[in-house]
Design brief:
- With about 110 residues, this protein is mainly α.
- It contains 6 helices and no strands.
- It has one domain.
- It is globular.
Length: about 110
């Protein structure tokens, strides 16, 4: 829902508690869809280094197990690179780079 975007961004970028950043980013990323990735990408584009570290931790926790999940997320990030929202496009580029560095534990046989 469009109404949830603002509050979710505030939570991911919570100025008072980076634990909120981590758990919110992880929860939204666990959707494993374009909407969840776009919320986190938008936040990542403007995050300071501390928040960025926690967002990267959430990316690692969500996408470092199954290679298929990581690969699907990378594909969605590639699509979001052309997003008309510059924040989403910039954050998608950063997320794509972070996801490319992951080496998931489980791969299809």
């Amino acid at each position: 829902m469009q109404e949830a975007l603002g509050p979710l961004l505030e939570l991911v970028l919570d100025a008072g508690d980076t634990f909120v950043t981590r758990v919110t980013a992880e929860a939204v990323l666990r959707r494993k869809d374009r909407i969840g990735l776009a919320v986190v990408a938008s936040a990542l584009a403007v995050a300071d280094s501390n928040h960025s570290d926690w967002i990267h931790t959430a990316l690692h926790d969500v996408f470092s197990i199954f290679s298929e999940d990581r690969d699907n997320a990378m594909q969605l990030c590639e699509e979001m690179l052309r997003d008309t929202d510059d924040r989403v496009a910039l954050g998608a580029r950063q997320m794509h780079e972070a996801l490319a560095e992951l080496d998931p534990v489980l791969r299809p046989i």
